[in-house]
Amino acid sequence: MPPPSDIVKVAIEWPGAFPRLMEIDQKKPLSSIIKEVCDGWSISTHENYALQHADGSGFYITEKNRNEIKNGAILRLTSSPAQNAQQLHERIQSSSMDAKLEALKDLAKFSRDVTFAQEFINLDGISLLTQMVESGTERYQKLQKIMKPCFGDMLSFTLTAFVELMDHGIVSWDTFSVAFIKKIASYVNKSAMDVSILQRSLAILESMVLNSHDLYLKVAQEITIGQLIPHLQGTDKEIQTYTIAVINALFLKAPDDKRQEMANILAQKQLRSIILTHVIRAHGPINNEMAHQLYVWQVLTFNLLEDRMMTKMDPQDQAQRDIIFELRRIAFDVEPEQNNIGGSIEKRKSMYTRDYKKLGFTNNVNPALDFTHTPPGMLALDNMLYFAKHHQDAYIRIVLENSSREDKHECPFGRSSIELTKMLCEILKVGELPSETCNDFHPMFFTHDRSFEEFFCICIQLLNKTWKEMRATSEDFNKVMQVVKEQIMRALTNKPSSLDQFKCRLQNLSYTEILKIRQSERMNQEDFQSRPILELKDKIQPEIIELIKQQRLNRLVEGTCFRKLNSRRRQDKFWYCRLSPNHKVLHYGDLEESPQGEVPHDSLQDKLPVADIKAIVTGKDCPHMKEKGALKQNKEVLELAFSIMYDSNCQLNFIAPDKHEYCIWTDGLNALLGKDMISDLTRNDMDTLLSMELKLRLLDLENIQIPDAPPPIPKEPSNYDFVYDCN
């Protein structure tokens, strides 16, 4: 007979004694269990003791997390969180350097546990650490030269403990003094500083900026871009990542009127070029966190265009009208003075109207009206002027080529530029907040100071080329724009490293090539509509659904590593979840780092019986998506969020690493509950597998014997003289 589900068999350690094997009744109060353990070792003051995990996280066991204890777990009897916090609070104030260093080392380790952190914070421990950073370390400054390693380690452990304690979200960031901020900033501003101290100082500054507007203002006064750039020019990848994170945080939190000013400073300091040289093109791969920070920098940079994108043109503004005059002058080599030489006003108006028609404006009489729609607003006009000035030959060629064609075959430059600018803003999501999970940066946008404008210049030439290849007329305008968007998206898929490489890929994606790709995809997705085929599909479909279901469940058995999101990504915790082979239990637990390969069931502390699952919710219905935060409510995170609801008010919250894993897990969980799998991935898999199975069954195999076994592998050749070695 199996043991009751409330009984857990564990081993409990106590220093200097043999471990005890005992059964824990989860229905009993935790204090009673601790008293029973203490009585077994004749320890009288059980109130001063607690249980903690002896392996893995080493966290304290509380009434909230006691259900995480599993059979075979090894626990340790140790001093209670309150007593441990009190002892460490006293030890870190020791006059002995060695004792102080050892105490801070222990504090940095224990602070990861929220139970201990709460007790230490209740003793005003955060204030003590900040005082030590502000002034306490100064008493050892004189000893730094002879005890430099010890001093560096002590400060490093102090900052580590501070970061871990603040990461629990118990204390508000608004409570810190200017002196503390100045001290942390000084560690960042020093040219030669211990790497661990620099890492933690940068992490603290980033959290301050992201979590408090008042602290942002204070940090912005203490840290300049010029002081941060040398850290990017080093070789330490972690320091580079933290540095870009701080720059992104300052950029993100800057008021609208200051953001462009900051962008100008970044341009003066050649930040883009430094990132390109020392990060993107440096030796070694770019890790996920660095990719995320580069993506955030890219998004924030493009978001500077939002103001122009949402600004309508004022037809009465002479400065704005002069831009249109300049476009006309460059295209037709018309000098401004000619406007006033001879002829009536009507004649000049007629000449302007003719030229504006050649430029492809919709409103030939007053082209300013073309730029009154947002988006793209004035951004389209800015792009047109940039193209005319910096790619003058290409601009003139496009305008003159189209002005010499029949009216219905001309590609209207003005209208095309406006629609193309709007399309590029949609592709690059100009104006949207950066996603908390996205790593999708494009190296080519780091190769030019005016990357968006250059991107436009390449794409407007592509549009004109595609228009000619399609032999389009004015009625085909929307069709041409759809083809151009497909060309751009396909070229961006492979992340070209430079704008020139992007241009080359577009050259290979001509209209003819797009038609071939579409035809190939259409054939792969070919859907036969005759009645016998439809009947065959209906017969096959249940088999395919069962095949997809088994694949989803097998993937859940393999498991997936998820990340717990918080305000500081670099210190995020990982956790793993997988389904048991018998499909009856979900095993999950925290990890110290992202795993390589599968994580065994017995190393995952928690479990959830599938029978206890009540429902699966997704997107904005998830409990963890109902919390409001600056970066949590964006579209990308909502699309990756799902939760398992169980018991009365309990839930297990997920944010999938990507859309594919999201579909795998939601499909698999729905399959476990006997519900339909409705993800996009299931639909695609169904179409692909159904099409393949239909084609196999419809093959003409009459009088063809299909072997039961694969053909034998042929013998190796007697020599390899036919092989040509390219090296």
TrEMBL record:
It is found in: Cytoplasm; Membrane. Involved in cytoskeletal rearrangements required for phagocytosis of apoptotic cells and cell motility. Acts in association with DOCK1 and CRK. Was initially proposed to be required in complex with DOCK1 to activate Rac Rho small GTPases. May enhance the guanine nucleotide exchange factor (GEF) activity of DOCK1. One of its GO terms (molecular function) is SH3 domain binding. The keyword Membrane applies. InterPro entries: ARM-like (IPR011989), ARM-type_fold (IPR016024), ELMO_ARM (IPR024574), ELMO_dom (IPR006816), ELMO_domain-containing (IPR050868), PH-like_dom_sf (IPR011993), PH_domain (IPR001849). Gene3D superfamilies: 6.10.250.810, Leucine-rich Repeat Variant, Pleckstrin-homology domain (PH domain)/Phosphotyrosine-binding domain (PTB). Pfam families: ELMO_ARM, ELMO_CED12, PH_12. Residues 319-492 form the ELMO domain. The keyword Phosphoprotein applies. PANTHER family: ENGULFMENT AND CELL MOTILITY, ENGULFMENT AND CELL MOTILITY PROTEIN 1. One of its GO terms (cellular component) is cytoplasm. Keywords: Apoptosis, Cytoplasm, Membrane, Phagocytosis, Phosphoprotein, SH3-binding. It comes from Xenopus tropicalis (Western clawed frog). This is Engulfment and cell motility 1. GO terms for biological process: apoptotic process; phagocytosis. It comes from the Eukaryota.
